[in-house]
Specification:
- The structure holds 2 protein chains of 2 kinds.
- By secondary structure, chain A is mainly α.
- Chain A has one domain.
- Chain A is 75% helix and 0% strand.
- Chain A has 12 helices and no strands.
- In chain A, helix 5 packs antiparallel against helix 12, helix 7 runs parallel beside helix 12 and helix 10 packs antiparallel against helix 12.
- By secondary structure, chain B is α/β, with parallel strands linked by helices.
- Chain B has 2 domains: 217 residues, P-loop containing nucleotide triphosphate hydrolases (Rossmann fold, 3-Layer(aba) Sandwich); 67 residues, Alpha-Beta Plaits, CATH 3.30.70.
- In chain B, the strands form 3 sheets. A 6-stranded mixed β-sheet of chain B has the order 5-6-7-3-8-9, sandwiched between helices.
- In chain B, helix 3 packs across helix 4 and helix 4 packs across helix 5.
- The longest helix of chain B is centred in the middle third of the chain and has 16 residues.
- The chains are: A mainly alpha, B alpha/beta.
- Chains A and B meet through helix 1 and helix 4 of A and helix 2, strand 5 and helix 3 of B.
Amino acid sequence: MQLWIRQITAVLRLEMKKTFLSKRGWWIYCLAAGPVLITLLHWMFEARVRGANNHRLGDDSIVFAALFQFFYLRATIFFGCMGIFSNLFRGEMLEKTLHYYYLTPMRRELLVAGKYLAGLSVALVLFVGSTAAAFLTLGRHFGPAWTDYLYHGPGLSQLGSYVLVAALGCIGYGAVFLMCGLFFRNPMIPAAVVFVWENLNPFLPSLLKKISVIYYLRSLCPVEVPVPPPFSVMVIDADPTPAWIAVFGLLALSLLLLTYTALSARQTEINYGE
Amino acid sequence: MSATAITFANVSRFYGEVLGINKVNLSIPPGITSLVGPNGSGKTTLMNLMTGLIHPTQGEITVLGISPSHPEQLGRVVGYCAQFDSCPKGLTGYQFIYWFLRMHGFGHQECDQKANAALERVSMTAAAGRPVGAYSKGMRQRVKLAQAIAHDPQVLVLDEPLNGLDPMARAETIALFREWGQNGRHVIVSSHILHEVDSISDQVILLSQGYVVAEGEIQGVRSEVKEQPMQILVRCNDPGGLAARLFQQDHMVEAKISRDRKGLLLRTTDADSFYLLLNRVILESGLEVESIAPADDDVNSVYQYLIGGEGGTL
């Protein structure tokens, strides 16, 4: 195995060992578990209390689309990635342990790559896993109709789309917050700016809409969520983005941010503020 | 650029408008080199610069011919035990050393063997399986030292390495420095415990307010401080008679007889003439001399002289 692969693997494994399922990440696990809990409650409530016939399967599909767009993308994945990725460097700075990494004979670009992959692994397991679990749980109270929807209807295709969007969300927001964690003493400030920008997206002019992660992620979502009044009058429609542009656009944007972060890491210094 | 020395060529480092070090020119040969100076004198800045953790505002640094801006090369030859009393959370002492060795690219067996050897070297084998977070300050200091030496670096940089160590561990650690220094490696030590630094250093670098005020072997540095008379302690059976004979010479500045009436502390501006005269006095008067030793060629005294104090260890 080549040296650079061994070094990235070592960073990845060390980070996984240190951070995955660590106590300080409890709120991220809660964020990931929250939607699953909601859909579990929905399943239990609908199946045992109300019965399965008071609403249609299509209603649940729209409910999940809304849950995914407004809770997963805007809260769970956004804040979860903020917690995971901005801490990869900033957390080490706060704990005064980053110098151990900087003293190893590895290129800083590889260190950035190793840490990003570690964060991405954790984020994918948590958020893609949570998305899939929540989707599969949501319609269980429909019994065979749900199984039929999954295997013979659009179910699996929708699940694939949601999983892809969740993964792309982790990749995109991960790159944004890794950069914030390296460059900002307090990553909360840029995170707040990004949060406001992302949530203003539906109300932005068409051109500005396209300068955001959420725009591309939304365009990949398989089910449209109707916007209720009075917000519907404020929403500005933009031309839908083809799926391949959305996917490659996001990957390219993430790669650009990561490259910039990695190159900048060579110039960063250890400053623990003493 | 030297492949065997650590060199600083006109190096300055500013933190905003605050001076870290200014116009430092150094060539540090192998052996044990001590950085001496009060807080804020620039010791840690110098160490952080030579290990690449910070970059110079101006000037050029090389460590065995390698620029600190190339961590992929520098990390193989440098081990740094920094002053920060922190280790990555959630790891045992063994894992802490093992995983950072893995980042060097070593395989599992090599990392395992090197980690165990380093832990044994600092007498931490028994505690290797315990979480670092549960270690005492002294144990953390030792495991940090083990982590710094685990990859067998040619240059070992140690910022206040004796902090928090008990006397036994301190003696073991000093023995380790000596061994590494005698093997032709660079051991750069900063410490406030001057008498310990004094006893182990091959050379010293004295810093004050970001400037190098002196460097070299301590006796050589002392002899260059011409304006301060040398202090020499002579223990003999007749210090009063000796003082009377010696004071006939112009270069004698001061003489003090110790409380036990067996010692005479002399200050002279010409140490060579003094020693010649002392030999003659001993031969002529039959004086019984127990010992003759310089009293102010230690790091502390030299440092005090250079920054304006009085020096002396008596």
